[in-house]
Amino acid sequence: MIRTISLLLLTLAVLIMAGPERVHAETATAPDSSWVRIGEVRSDTLYVSRDKVIALALEQNEMLAASKAMRDAAGADATGALRAFLPQVQLGSFFLRSDDALNSFGYKLQNRAATQQDFNPTLLNNPGETNHFVSRMQLLQPIFNGGMGINGKQAANAMSRAAEYDHQRAQETIRYQVVQAFEGLALAKAYESVMVAAVASAEGHVKQARSMVEAEMATEADLLQAQVYLSGLQQQLIEVRNMMAVAGENIKLLTAVEIDLPLAAELGFTGQNELSLVAELDSQGGATRSDILARREQADAAGQMVAVAQGSMLPHLNLSLQRDFYSQEDLFGDDARSWSLGVYATWDIFKGMQNIGEIKKAKAQKRAAEYMVQFETRQARVQATEALLTAQAAHEKVMVARGAVDAAREGLRIVTNQYREGLVSMVNLLDVQAAAIMAEGNLVQAMHDYQVGMANLEFSGAALESRGDR
Fold it and tell me: Which domain holds residue 165?
């Protein structure tokens, strides 16, 4: 025990000697380290994987958190709509002072304090000032409100379900945006590899042209053409690296990650991988998307609000149970008590024109919601069909681009050998290399379009799940 106390005193002494700076440093907010969950650092670059980026975005994206809060708010409204069925309990206390003859006598009766002397005509007519304290507890129970309660509750429930579907759509949207950003990063990374190889090849052409000029086997024009071509490729490489930096910043935005390192995509496919293809379309897929289901729930809520507006024109019945406590001297006094039980009806017949206007407005809003559902459902089906066609086209482009790359590489090899032998000019060689670079770039772009297209199949509702090669 003594040893433990000694250690505590020693620790306290060390903290005091360290000063306030040490304490402040230890209590400061730790820097963001969530970036470790999306990849690993290699050569001062954070290499990220698509699945990890999607998972972190679904967890940390602020717009998704806002969507969740809106969903919770709609759920709270649905819970609050129960108030139309539940009793209301009111507690209150008030003080009255009056010299009114009738009230003064009534106060005495309520306090059960009237005496024979109080019936003296002189005192009845001139009672003087009288104090009166009343404490009241009242219970109000709705019995019938024209269906406003139940229809209002159903409308709130429908809006709550719509908010849930909207939140699901927000998750789907964030996921799709992450896929687009990641595939943009992957596209830039793949383009960078193509351009780095192209620059290296062009540098070889410059070196070869220089040696051939020195050997008087080529003209100075060949060397200049090779240098100009190399300069153009170097500029394209700068643009590609800038595109990669921008794509990385978009991923940081979507995942709410703070890190100064540049990002690169962790590529998990090769050009020889087999690509999956959705050959059939669920014709009803687009009609069952989360956003379409949300619009249907909103249309249902609009229909329920028509019934609410109609219920406002009907009489309302309420049960009232009241308990009063009276005193002439003390606040919250209990000199006497009384209770009252009653049922009362209200019917606001002088708001007829206003109620008629509200009904017409609710019906118009219902029609508008139904028309929007019809249009957006048809639009979703068109989007699903378009997504399928786009994915099929991207798949075909990848197949064609792969063949073109093989042919371009072989052609470049042949023409390079011919140039060494003086059989073709530098212009011919550079044209063939440009065609090879274009073929490589087309394959990279086709793979990007395919990956994004497969994700769009899921986002549009044409497929339940997209499958890529990463």
Answer: 32-85+145-316+351-460
